[in-house]
Every structure is written in structure tokens, then in C-alpha cells.
Specification:
The chain has 105 residues and is an alpha+beta fold. The chain has 2 helices and 5 strands. The termini are far apart.
């Protein structure tokens, strides 16, 4: 009985198109690009623009959470004045995570 069922099976088809076999992988890579890589690139550009636009007098927040007023800038460093003792600390420019605006205070 089994050999009769095997004879009724559809004949084997030729090899499938390679593009159809790789299509799910291409779709997954496309989704990863638009969900992960592209937003990170946009965030990095915004961070670089913010760092390039730093000015003395801006209130900045470091990656460690220290909030201070920018008093001096160089190409690589930022000097912050920290209240209430007016202590001046120098940080790498990349350590600045953002600016404090009137809306966020």
C-alpha cells in the first residue's frame, strides 16, 4: 500500500529561485536596519550637533548626572561651574549628554 502512495505523489520540481530562498533574510535585515541602525545614526547626528553647538553660559548635564554651567570650551574639553560652591570641573566634550532648558527645570 505504501508504494502506491509514493507513486501518486507529485513529481519533484526543479530547483527553486535563489532569490526566493533568501527573501526572508533580506526582509529581516531590512527590518533591523529601519528599527535599530537608522535611529541610532540619527541619534548620533543629533548628539554631535548638540556638542558642536555648545556655548559658554549653557547649562549642561554630564553622563554622570552632574549639572553645571559651561564657563570654558576647547576642542576636546568643557569646563563646568557647579553650584552651590562654584566648583569648576573639566570634562571631555563627549561626556556632555545634553543641555538643560527652561522647560526641563
Amino acid at each position: 500500500m505504501i508504494p502506491a502512495l509514493l507513486l501518486q505523489a507529485t513529481p519533484l520540481q526543479g530547483p527553486a529561485n535563489p532569490l526566493v530562498q533568501f527573501l526572508p533574510f533580506l526582509v529581516i535585515i531590512g527590518i533591523m536596519y529601519f528599527m535599530m541602525i537608522r535611529p541610532m545614526q540619527r541619534q548620533r547626528k543629533e548628539q554631535q550637533a548638540m556638542l558642536a553647538g555648545l556655548q559658554a553660559g549653557n547649562v549642561a548635564v554630564t553622563n554622570g548626572g552632574i549639572i553645571g554651567t559651561i564657563v570654558a570650551l576647547t576642542d576636546d574639553t568643557v569646563t563646568l561651574r557647579i553650584k552651590p560652591d562654584n566648583v569648576k570641573l573639566t570634562f571631555a566634550r563627549t561626556a556632555i549628554s545634553g543641555l538643560v532648558t527652561e522647560e526641563t527645570k
